[in-house]
Design brief:
Helix content is 75%, strand content 0%. With 191 residues, it is mainly α. The longest helix has 23 residues. The protein is elongated and about 55 Å long.
Length: 191
């Protein structure tokens, strides 16, 4: 992705996060990016392409938060201690629910749109598969015969928790409650 595409993707995400898909127009993206009218048309001549730029930025932000919050797990791989996995996952949920709030809102809107747009759906599936692959090593110990399916379920449940906190709840759940829920999702014993 070029610097200009990234700038336009960030602007499109910002427009969706603050006003929903109805607010997403080429003009609104140009204005949010601080560029002259018509600039986005070169990179995203259609609404579908504009949605794709926004979704690419959503996943860029999600990956950046994941890499930062799961740093301690990445250092030791699948041999990470249960407490480290729980703390990193809780950090991820909290970061996505706070600093990633705009990305979560935009992604939610774009997930609905992806039902009707094959290119967006492909982007969603590709990125979801990457998150499942990231999670799978940590579930292999308790579900070796179905670790991919268990990882898929964990990704879905954690995504639901993030969406609940971001889109519905009037305030975030307390950290100990989030950590306990994640322990249950991972089927770890909470101490």
């Amino acid at each position: 992705m070029t610097d200009r595409q990234a700038l336009l993707g960030k602007a499109a995400l910002q427009v969706i996060a603050s006003g929903g898909l109805r607010a997403l127009t080429h003009r609104a993206v140009d204005e949010a990016a601080g560029l002259p009218a018509g600039s986005v048309n070169y990179y995203a001549p259609t609404r579908s392409r504009l949605n794709g730029l926004a979704l690419a930025e959503v996943y860029e932000q999600m990956y950046a938060i994941a890499v930062r919050t799961f740093g301690p797990v990445l250092d030791v791989g699948e041999k990470a201690a249960t407490d480290v996995v729980l703390d990193c996952t809780t950090d991820f949920v909290e970061a996505m629910s706070n600093e990633g709030r705009g990305a979560v809102r935009a992604r939610h809107a774009l997930l609905v749109e992806a039902q009707f747009d094959a290119d967006l759906r492909k982007q969603v599936i590709t990125n979801r598969t990457a998150f499942i692959g990231f999670t799978e090593p940590f579930v292999r110990a308790y579900a070796p015969e179905s670790s991919e399916r268990a990882a898929e379920l964990i990704v879905v449940l954690i995504d639901g928790l993030i969406q609940q906190q971001t889109l519905v709840a009037t305030s975030n759940f307390p950290r100990p409650m989030i950590r306990a829920a994640i322990a249950r999702i991972f089927r770890y014993e909470e101490r």
